[in-house]
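Much of what follows relies on a compact textual record of a protein's fold. With that in mind, consider the following protein and its fold in token form.
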Amino acid sequence: MSDWNGLRPEPPLWAIAAGLHEPHDDEGFLDYCERLGIDAAPLLVELTPRTAEFANRRLAAYLRREMRGTWKTHVEDWLAARIEPERRAWLHRFAESFLPKRR
């Protein structure tokens, strides 16, 4: 895994704004994940030096799953700043019509 030391961590801005630690200037991807307590191995599966940039996308997806409430709050705040409440309500109803019904 030493090939990944040159990969720079790029956590999503919403996570940083929510309190996730920013990477240090000289910190590599593996060191950053270790400092956060994240197992980096699953984020690097089947990546090569040419596709290493996808590790940061996988990190963002991991953070969305693990910080689900924070992510949802971020999305709602973002939408509230851009879409009128009536339109947002309509969009929610429209989107829900495609989701499976809960029993």
